[in-house]
From TrEMBL:
Listed EC numbers: 2.7.1.49, 2.7.4.7
Name of protein: Bifunctional hydroxymethylpyrimidine kinase/phosphomethylpyrimidine kinase
Enzyme class, UniProt record, top EC level: transferase
A Pfam family it matches: Phos_pyr_kin
Classification lineage: Bacteria, Bacillati, Actinomycetota, Actinomycetes, Micrococcales
Length: 269
């Protein structure tokens, strides 16, 4: 645990509507006492209704941003989000292997937006599984992403310890998210270093769920340098997200027919 203000890096795609991607990550870092840095991997035309277009940056463009940043700024934790292609996954994996000094790494295996639009090439899953997952401390799949990572025919209905254990065999700790269920509570399972933690929160009745996965993984990265372990950091990250969901109706973003953002600065305004 550090007492200095942590510098936390998001490597992710953009969301001009500010609810997901690198925009959400930087808001989350700021709200949770971390100084935010960002490396852009993709320029995504999206809003609360869905994704209109995806423009991937080249591996060289991503590599140069990472190397230039790390040559100057001490990074205390990294959150990795949308990468888009196998080539960019290889580039980020190489960069992380070359920088073992970055202590904490959270990987959100972003594949598909809640609108159904693809954010990762289909042929990139192997590279994600074999090159990037083993470089992470914790991966944060939702149930659909867990099914793809484990080659299951369809997403399981809810997170289970068995599913988390099978994901952990890919080489990282696991925060298996159950946000897409329908019960009264929203249940996740954290499995790190053989320790299982069940995380439960009341399910908030709102359409403003755009960027919940981005916000959760960013909060874990922001809090890990400020807490004693992943269990404490993840519990506090989920509490922050639950409050941001509960306060989201105070925002007025989008036409109201899509999925709006959570309120990242609910504690201030
Ligand atoms: N309506 C909700 N109320 C409370 N928590 C939620 C709700 N929707 C999602 N969550 C929580 O948000 C986090 C992200 O989960 P999920 O929505 O499954 O991820 P993703 O955005 O990657 O699909 C999890 O901790 C999940 O339990
Ligand atoms: C640029 C970008 N990255 C990730 C996502 C997916 O965000 P997520 O938190 O999983 O939330 P939904 O979009 O699924 O609601 C994204 N949309 N854009």
């Amino acid at each position: 645990m550090t007492t200095r203000i942590p510098n936390v890096l998001s490597i992710a795609g953009t969301d001009p509507s500010g609810g997901a991607g690198i925009m959400a990550d930087l808001k989350t870092f700021g709200a949770l006492g971390a100084y935010g840095c960002g490396v852009v991997t993709a320029v995504v035309a999206q809003n609360t209704q869905g994704v209109e277009a995806v423009g991937l940056l080249t591996p060289d463009q991503v590599r140069t941003q990472i190397e230039n940043l790390l040559a100057d700024v001490r990074i205390d934790a990294i959150k990795i989000g949308m990468l888009g292609s196998a080539a960019v996954i290889e580039t980020v994996a190489d960069a992380l292997e070359a920088h073992p000094e970055v202590p904490w790494r959270v990987l959100d295996p972003v594949m598909v937006a809640s609108s159904g639009d693809r954010l990762l090439d289909e042929d990139a899953v192997d590279a994600l599984r074999s090159r990037l997952v083993p470089t992470a401390d914790v991966i944060t799949p939702n149930l659909a992403e867990a099914a793809v990572l484990l080659d299951l025919p369809e997403p399981p209905p809810e997170p289970t310890e068995d599913l988390a254990a099978r994901l952990a065999q890919l080489g990282a700790g696991v925060m298996l998210k159950g946000g897409h269920g329908t019960g009264d509570s929203s249940e996740d399972i954290l499995l790190v270093g053989g320790d299982v933690t069940h995380l439960s929160a009341p399910r908030i009745a709102t359409r403003n769920t755009h960027g919940t996965g981005c916000t959760l993984s960013a909060a874990m990265a922001a809090l890990r340098p400020q807490r004693d372990g992943w269990a404490e950091a993840t519990r506090d990250a989920k509490d922050y997200l639950t409050q941001a969901l509960a306060a989201s109706e105070r925002l007025d973003v989008g036409a109201g027919t899509g999925h709006g953002p959570v309120h990242h600065f609910h504690a201030w305004w």
